[in-house]
Design brief:
The chain is mainly beta. The chain is 1% helix and 50% strand. The chain starts with 17 loop residues before the first helix and ends in a 6-residue tail after the last strand.
Length: 403
Amino acid sequence: MRIRKTTRIVTAAGACCLTAAVAVAVGGGAAHAAAATATAGSSATATAGWSAGTGRASATPRSIDYVTNGELSGVAATSAGNAWAVGHTGTLANSKTLILHWNGKAWARSAGFTPVAGALSGIAAVSASSAWAVGYTGSDLAQRTLLMHWNGKAWATVAAVKPVEGAFTAVTATAKYAWVAGATSSAQLGFWPQSLVWHWNGRAWAKTKTPTVIEGAYPDGFAVTGADSVWLSGLGNVNAQISGMLMHWNGRSWSLANYPLYGLYEQLNGMAAGPEGTAWAVGTNTGTSPGTISMRYNGRAWVKTSGPANGSTSNFDAVAAIPGGTAWAVGNTHHGFTDATVVARWTGKAWARVASPTPAGGGQLTEVAASSTGNAWAVGFADNIKTNVTKTLILHWNGKTWS
């Protein structure tokens, strides 16, 4: 499990064990009285953003900005007037859950939600009156899984999915189903965490059994490609080496799936379903074949796809299908002691880098979502190497540019 996806880029020399290399930071919330909302640009927590392409703070706050100490790990959008972003405020050692909502004009803290100790890692939006958020409550060293649902008025924990030691890290949903995945804590199994997957069939929640990965398993992304076909990606730890992990649900059970290997220390960081039973999986490799990882499922098999030439320290953290057939992938690339945001678009043959703003001091993108060819969101965090304090980061695609 992880909290911020930056910790996933692990050198071969440093990947002696997965639990040491991957930190946890996936949120949670519990009680749900109405919370006071904050309009972007109206308070100290909603400040100026950055000008596209300059990496410098803009003089005037933009309507799409919402900046506060913390990080964003998940985003979802159903239309130009409805989007969600989740993560945490504060530092990793002292974090509180954060849920933001876009109403078509501004980002603001969600009403009907009271922050608690913990963090949120993912969100799936079905409509303006239905969304699911996952993460954990508690401290970084004492986590309990968290699943919440938005009913159009308030957020509430899902009582049917009993909290256990661990954290949820991935979620996908429609009006007819939902899938939630994460990992148990190491304490439950004596040492190595294992996958934890729940399924909602539209009526009830049920826990599903997943294959055992001897030295730990950390799910991180879903792709539903059919009524009886679900893919789950993530990280595994085999023989003290980080590796990608891919599982498949055939309608009855989960099994470990084969896919084209990229070499040692590869990491599958996220995936998404495409049109007509296709899917995407992305990640990074810091071992024998360094660089971004990208694969496409064509309905029959997983096939490697070409990534942008951004150097050996580039990383894909998330991918989202764009209605109409193409896709976005986001992440970061290293430049000395700082990071720059990475956004790439699928051309039909390869990933092509698209210009994206990076805050002064560096920044990383952790998740992306698109509701149309002219509306997409990417979230993450801005770095400050001098203060070691991160700030939430939101970018928007208007059909022409990311800003």
